[in-house]
Amino acid sequence: MSRYVLGIDQSTQGTKALLFDEEGTLICRTDLPHKQYINEKGWVEHDPEEIYANTLAVVKNLVEKAGINKNDLAVLGISNQRETAMVWNRTTGKPVYNAVVWQCARGAQICEEIEKAGDADMIRSHTGLQLSPYFSAAKIAWVLKNVGGIQELADKGELCCGTIDSWLVYKLTGGKEFRTDYSNASRTQMFNISELKWDKQVCGLFGIPMSALPEVTDSDGDYGITDFDGYLDHEIPIRGVLGDSHGALFGQGCVETGMIKSTYGTGSSIMMNIGDKPVFSNRVVTSLAWKLGGEVNYVLEGNINYTGAVITWLKDDLELISSPGETEQLAKESNPADKSYLVPAFTGLGAPYWDSEATGILTGMTRTTKRKEIVRAALDCIAYQITDVIKAMSTESDIDISELRVDGGPTKNKYLMQFQSDIAHVTVQVPSSEELSGIGAAYAAGIAAGIYNKKEVLNKMTRIRFTPQMQPEERAQKYAGWKNAVEQVLHK
Q: Are 305 and 167 found together in one domain?
């Protein structure tokens, strides 16, 4: 009898199911999108019931597509979109409102009131996070304040307030388990990352009852058992839960202090393992990587708003390219003497600048600046932004960084990867697989279940390496030009 490890990656756009064999090889995947609800105010929501229904569906589709015996599934790991938050009735299991997505800033006023009261520094020192509506606390607080009739449920202890992982665990176990892991808890802005528990003072400021929060469980702990609403003939354990970026960090094998990864998606999450003690910073945030094997690891994380989305902008808005694949050749053919810089501050700048008022700029153009040069500037700005964060992390942690592990669609672009290596002066490693978030959660579950050996499975992945080729003088000159361009858009 075979033993398969199942991974569910519940992301912003959809839900994936991933099937791994006993060697840790990904052998099949299925996915389903879910609807994005965006209103005239720019508020973003998901339907939690649709997400759960899709979770059951992708598992069934996966079994059929792979042609395996469904009863050979042995263990489940879950990765999830992180800061997206929701509230549901503990008794009925029904959501009281849609899930409020991480992109949604409707809790801004709540954060402003807390800041005016002078509590922002305390929150950062307890949670490691800058006070922001980006995180789950302000989203849950908004739901509690604005949805009628739920305060009474809260007072009776009949509410569950959590992130998508805790919702899936609750539903998959028939309401028996209400749990989240350390990585997801640390991104809610309610978890004290030094004391490793929900923070009473912070929860009080947001008006969120601690009785409504899930039990924080080791990332490879026991999350109960599931048969996927009767689909399986037997129940299998849920033994791995990780936020998506943390899952990618683990899937990349960044388990030692100083190891760093960058995900190139719509935006980018750069995450660095800093070991078993937190480092607090004003330029990047501090979170928990996970608690695995009974040990806690911390991370520094920097989030960038526009990386892969810059390529979408070139294609859909400027119509300079018809597909992302064109950019590599165009950049290679561009005039090397052109000194154009694009600062893609379309919605402000994230880490390490944190300037929400910044606006974008294309600067340094001459008559030699044509289509190819603009495309190159767009690719280069991705690498420059990531280099800014890497440098900030190196300074804040006092750790020299020599290697960057990367994932995401834009990593297929060889020009970009070489330029990333050159400008950051690090070796860039591109893995053979793209599904790093789901891989990380599945591997954590497989290790916990005794199916995988940790060292063997994390070293399994093959990688392409890019090493720095640029001369130090050229690197310094190009980076100084970038910093000058950024200075032109900052409001601080």
A: no
Coil/strand/helix, residue 464: strand
Domain shared by 155 and 131, yes or no: yes
203, 225, 243: which is the final residue of a domain? Answer: 243
Pair 202, 126: CB distance under 8 Å: yes
Structural contact between residues 107 and 172, judged by C-beta atoms closer than 8 angstroms: no
**Sign of the CA dihedral 207, 179, 443, 72?**
negative
Residues 472 and 441 in one domain: yes
Cis omega (within 30 of 0) for bond into 324: no
What is the distance between the alpha carbons of residues 163 and 64, in angstroms, rounded to a whole number?
29
Q: How far apart are CA 286 and CA 385, in angstroms?
A: 19
The beta strand positions in 408-449, using DSSP E, are: 427-431
DSSP assignment of 278-321: ----SSSEEEEEEEETTEEEEEEEEEES-SHHHHHIIIIIS---
C-alpha distances (whole Å) from 437 to each of 7, 8, 194, 244, 487 are: 9, 9, 25, 5, 34
Same domain membership, residue 456 and residue 402:
yes
Structural domain harbouring 435:
252-492
169-223, pLDDT tens digit by residue?
999 999 999 999 999 999 999 999 999 999 999 999 999 999 999 999 999 999 9
- Give, in degrees to the nearest 5, the angle at Cα 25 between 21 and 26: 90
**pTM for this prediction:** 0.92
pLDDT tens digits, residue range 120-172? 999 999 999 989 998 999 999 999 999 988 888 888 889 999 999 999 999 99
User: How many angstroms separate the CA atoms of 440 and 244, rounded?
Assistant: 8
The vertex-13 CA angle with 300 and 54, nearest 5°, equals 120
Q: Please return the burial class of 391, using the count of CB atoms within 10 Å of its CB with bins 0-12, 13-18 and 19+.
A: middle
Domain stops at, among 207, 225, 243: 243
Do residues 96 and 150 touch, judged by C-beta distance below 8 A?
A: yes
